[in-house]
Each structure stands twice: as structure tokens, then as C-alpha cells.
Fold this sequence. Notes:
This protein is α/β, with parallel strands linked by helices. The protein has helices at 19-37, 59-67, 87-100, 115-118, 128-144, 182-190, 202-218, 244-249, 252-266, 276-283, 287-292, 301-312, 330-343, 345-349, 352-364, 381-386; strands at 2-7, 41-44, 74-81, 105-110, 148-151, 156-160, 174-178, 193-197, 232-240, 297-299, 318-324.
Amino acid sequence: MKFGVFSSIQIPRPWEAGSEQRQFLESVEQAEVADGLGYDYVWETEHHFLEEYSHSSAPSTILAAISQRTSNIRLGHGVLQLTTNHPLRVAEQVATLDLLSSGRVELGTGEGHGTTELHPFGARHRDKREMWEEGMRALIPCFTQDSNAFQGKYWSWEPRTVLPKPRQAPHPPLWVACSNLATIEMAARRGLGALGFQFATPEGARAWVNRYYNLFRAGVDKLADYATNPNIAVVSGFMCAETDAEAQAQAEGWTFFVFCLDYNRTHTYAPGTIALWEEYLQWKTTDKAQAVFETGLIGSPETIRKKLRAFADANLDQIILLTQAGRNTHADICASLELFAREVMPEFHDLEPAHQQWKDAVLRGDLVLDDLDTSRHNLVETQIVIGAPEKGGW
């Protein structure tokens, strides 16, 4: 099993002079710490206009900064929106980052959150899946063709040489956002890595991992001529401390993250008219909020180790730890990453060779996975608490 860290640059109100700069610089430093400790991936999201929830509107720039402070950690777009970004600009930015990082980029793409994000860019909510699919068809040839032209419903251009080209050939590994479980099936059919949220139970994880790999093995229907990427990675709430009580006391960021998912799913509001942290403090006292503390990888090393063993047995490829969220302090985040890396991560890193052998056997057809019933496991962990999200990406 591999491990990533996830940031969306959350900055709850009240804002002070320097709040944003401090959070951006600390996020870069946290990625540097993770690299030094042996974590495998850092994932940076893209969102627009979502106050307090995410100020990460230029993830390529953040990852470029991280690339100059790190040596080994993979740099993941989790995800770039193909509805609010022109495919030509995505190709240029991703290839530039791949060169600057000596070939460490992972390219996750998605559709965007909703009308708040989409409408200012001229994209419509009802068109976002179609736009994402066309965006993929337009984007991929930019990485490999010397002269590229495209004619579509949303994007069109005459022949051009798109420069630069990425270091990784033919392109960085491709992923897609899977905020609901049905999208995992789509990812498998399209030959893409699946980026989602943690499954509600180990049994659900096994059922969906089997479903994903069985569909992948059955044959993919690619949107373009790209290299496939068989992988499932899931985001989980995270805080590791010496005791469960200490970890829960430091885990408000995870509960704020889940609250924001729920609030932005069910509310629209004019700019500057809402204080999400104040709303969260009221919500935090509810039974729903208390249930969130029971989710995720929050606890002592031993508590987290027990949870992870169950999910490792389900053959998940990667767990992405939600570190920077809410008002989690820089000191607590770094200490948590260090404790987990020292006390927990080595056991699961040691399983990686055997996991790769399992995956190779599955993809060759030498190992046939049970076709388990996924209908009994139709929610990810956060949905048990807040309900199902809209269809589409993060």
C-alpha cells in the first residue's frame, strides 16, 4: 500500500493579513516534510470561489513550488478541472511541471464542483460530463503529437505544436475524480486511475476493488490513445497522535472538511455573505458531527494500524491522508505525519511488492477475483454521515 497527503488550502474565517500566504507556504513545507519521511504522493486539488473550503485555484503553481523543495514524492493533480481550463493550457502547464519535477507528475482530472465554479467560466452544470470527456479527447494528443488540431463542441483549434512535451512518455499517469461510487466503474471502463473517498467498510472496499479490477481486466473503452493506469486511491480523514483522545482533539480539520462538503452541496450563497467556520461550530455539536469523528484514520498508531490492516486486505492501492484542513495547525500536521511514518507506514510499505504481484496476476488473468455484490456497499465513508453527493467529480 502507498500513501499520499492531500491539501485543498482551507482557510476558515476570520481572515487576517497574511492568512493566505501563511497557509500556502505551510502547505509547501508539509509536502517537503512528507517527502523526507517517505510518503509516496502529494495531491493538490483545484477549486474556484469556494470561500474557506478551498483557496487552491492554481494547483500547478503550488505543485511547481513543491517540486523545487522535494526529490521523490509524486506530484498529483487531485484534480484539474477540464470544464474550467482550456485543454491546451492544461497540456502546457502539466508538461512544464513534469519537466521541472524530473517526471513526477500524476494527472487527475475532473468536472468541477457545481454552478458556483462552472458558470463564471461559461460552463454549464448539465454539460460537465460531456465537457470532461471532450476535454480528455482534446488533451491527450497534445502530449504526444508534433502537430495537433481539434474540432469539437466545446474546444476547437487549428494545427499547432503544443510545447513543451512532458518528460514522462507518453504522458503522466492519468486519474479521474470519483466522488460517487458509480464513477469508479466509469474509471475502470475508461482505463483510468480512480480517485475517491474512503469506503465505508473493509467489505465495501473489497467489493469495489474487485469490481474495478474485473471491469479493467474485461477491456477498456478509452476516450483517447493514452496509457492506462490501473489504480484505486481513496482520501481519508487523518490525524495520528500518541493517544486516541489527543488525535480526536486535533482532528477538527476533518470534521470541517466534511461539513463543507455537505454545506456546499446543499447551499448557494452570495460572495462574502457566509462564515462557514461559524456555521461549522454550531453543526459540530450535532449527532451528525459526532459521527464524523468515528470515520477516517484518526487515533493512536495502534488504532490506525488496525483500521489500515482491514483495508490493506481489500487490496486498495493507495490511501490519501487529508492533512491540511480546517484549523489544523502546521505543528500538529507535521507531528502527525512524522508519528505515522515512524510507527505505522513501514508495515504497509512492506506489503507493496506482494500487492504489485497480486495486481499483475489479476491484470494478466492468472487470478480471477470474486464478483462481489456492490449494491450493499453503495456509499463511501463521508456519505454515511452527510448523504450522497452530486454526480461527477470533486
